[in-house]
Amino acid sequence: MPFIDSKITVSVSREKKEEIKAKLGQAITALHKTEHYLMVGIESDYDLWLAGKKLEKGAYVSVSLYGSASPEDYDRMTGRICEILNQELGIPASSVYVTYHPVTDWGWNGRNF
Question: For a FRET experiment, which of 5, 21, 55, 64 has its CA 20 to 30 Å from that of 31?
């Protein structure tokens, strides 16, 4: 059960959010997961600063994952996330920051996996 939470500095229309969500659903296979249980959150018009300077076009993406993946899988996923945000919103990869959070305990539907 992965969760991809994105905080994006630019405005993102409902239609673009749908496109990004769909592409993330395809990209999650890099972590050997499917879209079936994928949860996606997209927060646009988010203020981000780096080194004291406001990012005009940037994103912070947090990926929580039940279990873990290999460093190569994480690297592949980071590449896909950067590609999606660049294609859909024009955000350069150099302004996209991705963190991964392997989770051992994840609850859903009244119980834990």
Answer: 55
